Here is the input.
Amino acid sequence: MERLRRINERFLTDILFKIIRDAFLNLSPVFMIGGIVIMLINLPFEGYQAFISYAFHGIIHEMLNVLYKVTFGMAALYLVVTVGYSFCVNTNNMDDLIPTVLTGVSSFFIVTDIFNCEGKMDAFGVQGVFVAILTGCISAKMLNLLLRYRKERHQPGIMMSDLRFYKAISYIPFLVIVIMVFLIIDTTICNLTGEPNLYALEVDGITYLFSLSGDSFGTALSMTIVNSVLWFFGIHGSNVIEPAMARIFTPLLEENIAAVGMGLQPEHVFSKAFFDLFILMGGCGTSFSLLLAILFFSKKKSTRDIAKVATLPMIFNINEIMVFGTPLIFNPYLFIPFLIVPVVALVIAYGAISLGIVPMITAEVSWTTPVILSGYLGTGSIRGSLLQLIILIVGMFIYRPFLKKYEEQSVDETVILYNKLVKYLQNSEDEVRLITLTERTDDMGTFARGFQSEIRSAIEKNEMTMYYQPQFSPDGECVGAEALLRWFHPDLGEVYPPLIIQLAEEGGFNNSLEVSILKRTIEDAKEIRQQTGFDKKISVNVSGGVIQTKPYVKALEHHIKHHNFNEGEICLEITEQKAMLSKESAYVSLEDIRKMGYLLAIDDFSMGHTSLKYLMVHHFDIVKMDGALVRGLTSGAKERVTDLVRSIIDLSNQLGFDVVAEYVETQEQRDVLHCLGCDIYQGWYYAKALKKEDFIQLLKEKAK
Here is the structure.
């Protein structure tokens, strides 16, 4: 498994594999819709087929065919586009998106020679996926290299519309070069091989190789392996080997049927129906076994959700949703069982039929006939159904350990993206730089948007919790506490709180988040006081953009009426004060909130313009000194920082508010603050943030 982990890391980090995987993932909706359409077209029920074919003059069947043509029938063309898009995203080169996509599509048209194929559109569909991947990646890389030599000329006085025009024109020579390279390569190879295009060369070459060994066990084994390998690289293996399958194995079933009709024993174990009934159950890779493994053993919600969507189509042996949704493409963990299970199925089925345990297949069965039923119809015996069931169960247990490792790996990938996002946010905080995480076009942006939905769901399910960091006086008495938001993600552990706030603000649900924080804190405060008699203030953070809004004020009024807390027991600690300075209207004033019985505090107070102006406009009971000032008391600039802290404390004495110092982590910091006149401390020197139960225990111990 260690080697698998290294291979998987290569797939995750290698830019080429990442581009291809992302391209397939972007096409997931197309494959899902297409899979459902194929199922609806091919359901093996005579009455149903008659209905869609003749009802309303065949309009239903015609509409389904059109849907197929615009999904799977155009999959390769769509893939060229998504490869170009994925290339630009992963190389951080979105400015060149349009020319990259145009070059890829043009090159694809050349290598498939689509306009000279007299109506053959196979290359546009799933059969042409391999050519699409190859063309899209090579053309994008070539154009990217060539554009390094492009020079943009900016002349004074040029209007924006003209600037866009000149920029578009500058791409022309480079697009022409890439297209000409593909035209030369395609023409040369086709002249040498006699094939009309590279797509035809791919199909005919594979068919010829299989035809060399006839209808032997070796041919069946090689077809089974090649089918899985092709699917792993995103190529529709079943369609690629279909011509060879039809030429070699389809006639054998007809001979079996003819033998039975003449009262003779059938002779051929292998036939195309053999693969449909025992190898391709649920689709390629005997993927019905994977479906069962997910339904029974998966612990990852997203994987189970995909399996649920894929279940109905897979009953009818259509597995594109599973293959492209999981995804199986470029997935080294699932590739091993994806390759092994069909081989095991081949060996078990061949042995059972060769030994006479299960009758030979003597009836033609539609490939969309559900598992178990198809085994009975094909062999005329319940033993055919039992054979299918045995293969599926064996396959399920083969898939199981690899599925577990895959889900562990996907968690690792999530952790990597989460850590990158947190680091990016922390850097922006240090640089005081405004960012919007969900507007990023790279992996971090994709993760941020998905994580934002998880946060919204966690708020709705009340999964967030509050921790309490005590505040102490110089003699060690607990004189208050700050409620701090915590969320423990099942895969990521404790989530960085500023990330929760940031994504809630970007998603427009920060108001509901902060209302839920207020509600939880007041409920906890009531329980803490009931168990300990603690009657000091408990602070809860609220942003300047939320505190005066109608929903938040309504929540403040509600808690006054229903929790009967005393005046000054809850302190609203306001963050992001600048948002209030620019707020033209508010539901109530801060003074009205103070009259309700709440204390008001400024968070991260410093001697900056915003902090002083905010203090001038509103009346506060407490200011919390900026943590950078506390840390600076023992830094190289401690003399200047000491003067600033002394100024804040003097200001507090004049205006009548208390000063709380947070991030007090050493005795030296505490002693300096005490000498300067600050007597309320919060930080690791005294205690980390504690669970409610631990905070209650601490208060009980202090009371002894």
